[in-house]
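Thread title: Can someone regenerate the structure for this chain?

I was given the following input by a collaborator and told the matching structure tokens would be attached. They weren't. Posting the sequence so someone can regenerate them.
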Amino acid sequence: MRRLLVALLLLLTLPGHTAESKTAGIAWESWSDSVFERAARENRFVLLDLEAVWCHWCHVMDEVTYSDPKVVELIKSRYIAVRVDQDRGRTSRVATRATAGRRRSCSTPRAARS
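Best answer:
Regenerated them for you:
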């Protein structure tokens, strides 16, 4: 248990592991079927961000893209932002299976087509 606490403390002190504070403008939601229901109801996209602590490019996205005020505003206006931790096992497998048959959810909402 002590090793786990030490590892967590070290992880929190490493540069680039402060994604939550850098993407504070984005209201990340957890994976759920209700997210897709809401997206259909509100005619919005679902932005599915699969992150991992070990993923360099995930941290780059947080530091560069998701911290850009223009990107934050665009996400707030057109997307429902969902973040899934790839290291949490079952959650990512469920997300992968559930999105496999949702090609329609990747299409452009009716309002954005015109």
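The mean pLDDT is 74.
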